[in-house]
Amino acid sequence: MDISENLAQLFNTISHSSNVILGCINNAELKEFRHSLRQRLAVRKHLHSNERIFVRDDPIQLAQLPPRINHVEVVKLADPYFFGALLGNQRVGTLLMTNNDFAFAKRYNYSFTSVPNNNFLIGWDFDNHHWLDNSFSFGNYVDIYFPAHVINLHTLMQAFGEQSKAIPIGSLQWTLEFLEASTTQLLAPRESNLPIGEHGFYEKFTKRNEIVSSWARVSPDCTLNPDLRSYTSLAQQARLTYWLKSTTHLVVPSGGDLPARFFDALITRSCVLLPEDLRNTIDLLPIDDYDKHLVQFFDPGALTDRHMSDLIQLGIHRWSTVNSEDRATPLGRFKERLLALHITTSVSKMLDNTNALIGYT
Fold this sequence. Notes:
Number of domains: 2
Largest sheet: 6 strands, mixed
Strand content: 5-15%
Strand order of the largest sheet: 2-3-1-4-5-6
Structural class: alpha/beta
Number of strands: 11
Helix content: 40-55%
Number of helices: 17
Order of helices and strands: HHEEEHEHEHEHHHEHEHHEHEHHEHHH
Shape: globular
């Protein structure tokens, strides 16, 4: 079958870009750069504190971490103190920062990265699946860099070395303590089976927008919203009430990533409707088989109204099966399932990897 001239040009551009990337990641200078990062880490590792980490007290990022993770104290800093440590170079110890913190700091002072920081910096990149210009700047600045998604992971590893292990985001809307105290609500019947899926509208994510719009034909709660602040400003209980309205949640990633909302759906014991191309990624997640059973995959190219209705019914069955299992599970084991899906576990893995990389015992 002949392809259009525009499509042929697109294929040619992709092919050319791929060859350019291959050439870059095999460049000898990149190997030397990785070596220089290892040397820099060896020089700066004494700045790391294994007793305490500092994070930005941002309600849509790391504010729901517990006060301690294993033996490490977690200190949440308000913006003046966090950015004072980052931009003002005030010594506090070890900072765990996200790519969003990094981008926000650049708005204050774009040149702050030219000065070595007096703190040990662990970077967690929530957007390495699409914001690569920020990813490379971020990975170069921090002492240890962790992407959150496997997308683009090989390219990032060629730049920053084996330290660039993908650490999934996890659920970050609620504290673990709050969820554990909400067990009765998590296991209660739901008022609706129609999927909920209010996604932010971003013009460049056209495929994502089209998928959400397709699901909107069968559920009014699957929407695109350019401004989600009315939701992000809600307290923990109001957010939980929203997520527990339905047995099923639609999760449409922007591009091969596993967003926080995926883990939010699982930790609220809801069925997840997820595009088929993430099946292999889910299979590799170190989570309970019952959690994986909550995932109902779909083909974005086959979303007729009838097919979506059938998928909803399959989702209801998955939710019912896991709900019955959760009810029969001892409370301690049930709490372990919540912990495995929470941001606490992700940060714990980062800290363990950091200690291994710097040889801390």
